[in-house]
Each structure stands twice: as structure tokens, then as C-alpha cells.
Amino acid sequence: SLQLFNRNKILTGLLQACYKRPVTTAQINKIVDDIETELKNTLKTEFKTSEIGVLVMERLKELDDVSYVRFA
Fold it and tell me: Angle, to 10 degrees, between the axis of helix 49-63 and the axis of helix 7-17?
């Protein structure tokens, strides 16, 4: 389904996935900032939830495997 970009929804999902993991709030915010910038550059306003999920998982996989699996 298509949705508007929701920064808080992504942030909440990341915070849950990274709970009690060696990931800082700054790292989580950077992921959300990077995704927001990337999506704004597409000039679209609505995105498939799967598109956003892939972007989050790509960045999370580089950061912490356990958080990546939790998010997936």
C-alpha cells in the first residue's frame, strides 16, 4: 500500500528493533534522516511500505545484525 513518509513511524520501528542493542540514538536518527533525504529526492510524496522497509533494512544491516532481523 502507498503511504506518505512518516518519520515518527520509522523512528518508532527502529527504536523497537534496536532496543538494548549497541546502537545510539544518533545512529538511528541518521538512518531516518538519510531515508527522508533519499525519498525527498525522488520527488514522490507517497511510497510503498515495502520500499521504505528495504531502505531501512539496508542501513540497519550495516549497523547491527540483531536489530536488522528484529526489524525484518
Answer: 40
Q: How far is the C-alpha of 4 from the C-alpha of 40, rounded, in Å?
A: 11
Q: List pLDDT tens digits, range 43-67.
A: 888 999 999 999 999 999 999 999 9
For residues 34 and 56, the answer to whether their CB atoms sit within 8 Å is: no
HEC-encoded secondary structure of the chain: CEEECCHHHHHHHHHHHCCCCCCCHHHHHHHHHHHHHHHHCCCCCEEEHHHHHHHHHHHHHHHCHHHHHHHC
> What residues contact residue 2 under an 8 Å CB cut-off, 6+ apart?
46, 47, 48
Q: Which of 39, 55, 59 is nearest to 47 (CA)?
A: 39
